[in-house]
Amino acid sequence: MDFKVEESTIQEIQQAFGEGKLTSRQLIDFYLHQIETLNPILGGVIEVNPDEADNERMEKEIKGQLLHLHGIPVLLKDTIGTKDKMNTTAGSYALLGSKVARDAGVVVRLREAGAIILGKASLSEWYKFRSLSGVPDGWCARAGQGLNPYVSSGAGGTPCGSSSGSAISVAANMVSVALGTETHSSIICPSVHNSVVGIKPTVGLTTRAGVIPMTPRWDTIGPICRTVSDAVYVLDVIAGFDPRDEATSEGTKFIPQGGYKQFLNKDGLKGKRLGIVRHPFVEKIHGTAELEAFELHIDTLRQKGAKVLDNMKIENIDIILEPNHSGEISVMMADFKTSVNVYLKELLDSPVLSLKDVIAFNESNAELEKLAEHDQKTFIEAEETNGFGEHEKEIVSKLDSLCLNGLEKLMKEHKLDSIVTPGSRACAVFAIGGYPAITVPAGYERDGMPFGICFGGLKGTEPKLIEISYGFEQATKVRTPPPLHHT
Q1: CA distances from 167 to 47, 85, 199, 327, 474 (A)
Q2: Residue 469 and residue 193 in contact, taking contact as beta carbons nearer than 8 Å
Q3: How far is CA 153 from CA 41, 449, 484, in A?
Q4: What is the pLDDT of residues 379-407, one digit of tens each?
Q5: Nearest C-alpha neighbor of 127 from the set 198, 77, 196, 191
Q6: 10-486 domain in CATH 3.90.1300.10?
Q7: How far apart are CA 125 and CA 145, in angstroms?
Q8: 438, β-bridge pairs
């Protein structure tokens, strides 16, 4: 093979295909070897797709006209349904053997674009909603504990979650690109912690049809990749209307003619108005390297032509950042119970048909699920709700007000193109408003632990966020592969 697959981008892979330096078979074999070698250590992949081992099919695809993601292997978070030999289980044994009626909407789009569905990525089981405190980030029964490839397990480096396996696998070069899902921090946080790029799209920009739901009013599906350009290539494919997800009727109105690749502009920072939101995010930085890097990166933004407005304040930020105080968790519980019951009943075959059944399964299979008594506390509390009622409607109205008087007011008053925050600490702001955000690697602590920088904005502002994040990435090029990759 006359091509280095490690750290290669979609463009580089497809160019190698065209020049005869790489075949899809060779590419798949490289990633399968990586998974065989590294996954026993990292726990990023739950299962590999046996249907994608068809050499003749892959070679035929590559010889034809290249589509957007032709021949590119993709890992899917194990909540994204596939109508094939793989399971869709949210990392739990409770759904092992369940049968989905069809491919999830985003999977249909990936396959149509020529992508190869390589397998399912691990995750914080059930989006870590089984228990908010009893289960570690990146842990699920089927795959065990996912580990951060940059920091040894003894050093306490978490992969974060819930899309932990997607971020781990992309970071460690076990796959080209991956999909994750986010309700509250589940793409942004693992992307930050594993030194990769994550895009949380505007809710409704990508379809959630066929994906195990968490909180449909806030759920979104997005790419996790090593570069901004790869993430944008994937976003271009998965964004669009789906009659099976009514949220896409509004969300996809934001998609620009010609798609998102046109905004991969290395001078994308020039003329942008960026609001640096320090409080309370900077105070929560623990590492000195991240603190120093954040200040240097702000200087870089200025040097690349951005108008930087420092010390911006989001009204009621302390309330927004406390999901129990704001009521966000109450809405999640009610929405989760209702939506997961609908999902389970629509399966062609399933060992469980309701959240109540899942709780009972876990209790009966405590050893299989490695379950302690407190490890499904949130499930039990969600089951005790009466679904989405007047109380929850009042909370949503309050959250809408927090958005209107918070991020929206700040952005509009100062004519900002994006806010800028360190790490994943502002995820609650983006969650409750259905707003988009992009995180880019920003550096490493002295123990190797990665950190990132996050650009977020109002609904539909992906074009500006892509220009900003790509401009930043090209100016800094911070990302390096994890040391585990070389063992």
Answers
A1: 16, 23, 12, 29, 21
A2: no
A3: 10, 11, 12
A4: 999 999 998 899 999 999 999 999 999 99
A5: 77
A6: yes
A7: 10
A8: 199, 455
Of 8, 24, 77, 122, which residue is the catalytic one? 77
* Domain ranges (residues) in the chain: 10-486
3-state SS, residue 284: helix
C-beta atoms surrounding 3 within 10 Å? 19
Peptide bond into 162 cis (omega under 30): yes
pLDDT in tens, 289-341: 999 999 999 999 999 999 999 999 999 999 999 999 999 999 999 999 999 99
DSSP conformational letter for 151:
S
- Catalytic site residue from 186, 191, 229, 326: 186
CB 152 within 8 A of CB 49: no
What tokens appear for 93 in the block?
């044994």
C-alpha 487/C-alpha 485 separation (Å) is: 6
Residue 3 neighbours by CB under 8 Å, 6+ apart = 16, 21, 22, 26
d(CA 115, CA 230): 13
Tokens of 282: 């900077």
Could you tell me which of 220, 282, 234 has the C-alpha nearest to residue 419? 282
Residues contacting residue 253 through CB under 8 Å, at least 6 positions apart:
460
256 vs 461: CA distance, rounded Å: 10
User: What tokens appear for 86 in the block?
Assistant: 């793989």
- Asked whether 235 and 272 are in contact (CB, 8 A), the reply is no
* 77 belongs to the catalytic site: yes
Spacing of C-alpha 379 from chain mean position: 22
Let me know: does 379 contact 385? Beta carbons within 8 Å. Answer: no
Locate tokens 């993430």: which residue? Answer: 231
Q: Are 193 and 157 in contact (CB under 8 A)?
A: yes
- Written as one string, the DSSP assignment of 211-254 is B--S-TTT-EEEEEESSHHHHHHHHHHHBS--TT-THHHHHGGG
Query: For the whole prediction, is pTM greater than 0.70?
Result: yes
Tell me the C-alpha distance between 414 and 364, whole Å.
56
> In sequence order, what E strands does 293-339 have?
307-309
- Given 92, 162, 164, 424, the catalytic residue: 162
Cα 413 to Cα 154, 317, 407: the distances in Å are 47, 17, 10
Structure tokens at 391: 């109380």
Query: From CA 176, how far away is CA 73, in angstroms rounded?
Result: 6
Q: Is 9 helix (H, G, I), strand (E, B) or coil?
A: coil
Q: pLDDT by residue (tens digit) across 158-205? A: 999 999 999 999 999 999 999 999 999 999 999 999 999 999 999 999
Alpha-carbon distance of 22 to 134, in angstroms, equals: 46
